[in-house]
Amino acid sequence: MSLDASLLFGSAWLALFLAAAGESWRRPRTHDLARVLWTLGGLALVLHLVFAFQFRHHWSHAAAVADTARQTREFTGLDWGGGVWVNYFFAALWLADAAWWWLRPESFADARRWLLLTRLFFLFMWLNATVIFVSGPQRWLGLTVCAAAVLARYGARRMR
């Protein structure tokens, strides 16, 4: 694998692993560690977008839309490049979520509906990125990490 591909895919997987770790460490005693991991995950996603534009799309938004439309068409039959905008929204939402957690941790912790809605959207994005639009061992790794994050976050709460 080339350095370009390693940086591109490595940053995406790093974002997912940091997010999963942040979710699994979100407990009263490890709250600060979870917040740091979650924030670093969001920054890794932004780095992934930068690498995608640098190495795959050569800083062309039109090329990114065309490539996204091609991938979506190959998988779903729908020729739609709007997934690029969904990815921009995902990164912005993740950074806003992390900023809220840093700036107003009390209100963030009380926003259960917000957390549920954003985490469901994040899970949708991670499943698309690591299970739906990949193949082979990566698919199983993505499914395992997504499931582990869900179980760590919501399974531990149910056991208490």
| Helix/strand structural class | mainly alpha
Secondary structure: number of strands: 0
Low-confidence stretches: none
Write down the Rg: 16 Å
Largest beta-sheet characterization: none
Question: How many structural domains does the protein architecture include?
Answer: 1
Total helices: the number is: 7
Indicate the mean pLDDT: 90
- Which range best describes the helical content: under 10%, 10-25%, 25-40%, 40-55%, 55-70% or over 70%? over 70%
Order of helices and strands: HHHHHHH
How much of the sequence is in beta strands? under 5%
Overall form: globular
| Distance, first to last CA | 44 Å
Structure in words:
- By secondary structure, the chain is mainly alpha-helical.
- It has one domain.
- It is built from seven helices and no strands.
- It has helices at about 5-25, 30-55, 60-75, 85-105, 105-110, 110-130, 135-160.
- Helix 1 runs parallel beside helix 7 (about 135-160), helix 4 (about 85-105) packs across helix 6 and helix 6 packs antiparallel against helix 7 (about 135-160).
- The chain is globular, with a radius of gyration of 16 Å.
